Amino acid sequence: MTTAAGVLAALAGIAASEALAAVLDLRESPVLSVGQSVIELTPGPIAEAIIGVVGTADKPLAIASVIVAILLLGALAGRWWVARRVAACALVGVLVVLAAASILSRPYASAPGVFACVAAGVVVMGVLELLLSAGERKPADLARRGFLRTFGIIAVATAVVGVGSQALATRRRRRQEIEDVRASLTLPSRRVSAPAGTDLQVAGQEPWLTSNRDFYRIDTTLSPPLIDPADWTLRIHGMVDREITLTYQDLLDRGLTDAWITICCVSNTVGGDLIGNTVWGGVPIKGILEEVGIQSGADALLSTSEDGWTCGTPLAALTDGRDALLALTMNGEPLPVPHGFPVRQVVPGLYGYVSATKWVTDWEVTRFADFQAYWTQRGWGERGPIKTQSRIDVPRNSDSVDVGDVTIAGVAWAQHTGIEKVEVRVDEGEWREATIAESPSVDTWVQWKIDWSAQKGDHVIQVRATDRTGETQTAERADVLPDGATGYHGIQVSAG
Ligand SMILES: Nc1nc2c(c(=O)[nH]1)N[C@H]1C(S)=C(S)[C@@H](COP(=O)(O)O)O[C@H]1N2
Ligand SMILES: [Mo]
């Protein structure tokens, strides 16, 4: 019993240290570090003899022997725990000190690494205490049952933590590999700044050009797919004359087109911030579809991502000449991993859920009548054209402003139609037309601003936009479900 408790306590300690190493993102876990130290401290001739026998398995062998040694010493600590507590604690303490010394002697010596060793020691003693001390004051029968139950619980927890931390560590390494590949790519488009006149530079206003870092992110994945561009392919099939499979290099060979496009989420509430604007670099989807030849009767492109998310896009929007792209870059950089690296779709004028497939790997040309995509299965609209909207960014809702001159500013969007005018009213008075900034295309949002002479008291400010077909956004409030929110954005401020 005491031996089993000791071994389990040692395993729990190892699992805890591995978990901390994974969570704290350590270069080496304590076990790995001690294994390295063992290899380095093994005298040359002995090391050579070992390598002669086991070959390149010397590293796994070193780690395995470290683990076996820890388990044996754990068993010993278990046997000593009840009768020779001080000796048992000292044994655990010596192990912790040795592991910490090993960590500190490594090139990437780290305080968190030492912390992981100490925590492991605490876990070992905690488990021994739980398993072996609780039974001391109970009749043998009860004690045995209690021991088995506690033993089972700790064993399961140890297994879960152990496996989980290995999985996390593996994923971390893979993410780093993909980030390194991404950083080493040199693509033919470069980071750019906002074209002149697009940003009104009103203090507190969101920039016209959204940085990759600040770009909203929406997807159904818990952790983004990690795809090496060298392995990426896009299979195109369905109602086409020729099935083809494209590689990343195929796309690069076609040359990248840059386009300013504001994308937004159907879940963006009135006044919300699930919207961002940047320059995307990619290959026009239209040309690719012409190459494969769309058969008559097809009206949809069903795209699937590496993680199995699906999206149905009207073929009309992909072939009418707008800048619908298979994008490789976002503001001149390879797509960030969370935004679809290595390749995603971007289509002006459609909400993301029906157009902007990230990590896209499969295209089926088909009919809307023949499938339902991820969100349409869940009650969202089939087509998802973006609704004209406007938002007040300055002042903020509930702000206090000074009496007198106040600048009201914000953004408005009607992707692929363009914004004709933006109007603002205070306290349901007359609509007054705001100044609209420049925009390089009808596919982006525009900034607007207007001066207001605030009088003392509380006020309600509202905004509305009119698109270039002359249609003014509706005042009628609609929820985001099923196909996008409507209504005027309004804020309350008090002037004093
Ligand atoms: N693979 C995949 N692509 C996806 C999604 C997703 O869940 N999975 N979400 C879509 C939705 S709803 C939106 S609004 C946009 C958001 O893109 P972003 O995260 O780059 O801003 O991605 C779209 N592409
Ligand atoms: Mo979305």
Summarize the structure.
The protein has ten helices and 19 strands. The termini are far apart. The protein folds into three domains: 2-168, no CATH class; 229-378, Sulfite Oxidase, Chain A, domain 2 (Alpha-Beta Complex), CATH 3.90.420.10; 389-495, Immunoglobulin-like (Sandwich).
Description of the molecule:
There is one protein chain. The protein is α+β, with helices and mostly antiparallel strands and 496 residues long. The chain folds into 3 domains: 2-168, no CATH class; 229-378, Sulfite Oxidase, Chain A, domain 2 (Alpha-Beta Complex), CATH 3.90.420; 389-495, Sandwich (Immunoglobulin-like), CATH 2.60.40.650. The protein is built from 10 helices and 19 strands. The strands form 4 sheets. It has a 5-stranded mixed β-sheet. Strands 3, 4, 7, 8 and 9 form a 5-stranded antiparallel β-sheet that branches. Helix 4 (58-80) packs antiparallel against helix 5. The protein is elongated, with a radius of gyration of 31 Å. The model has no long low-confidence stretch (mean pLDDT 95). Residues 218, 265-267, 351-353 line the site of molybdenum atom. The site of molybdenum atom has 7 residues, from loops.
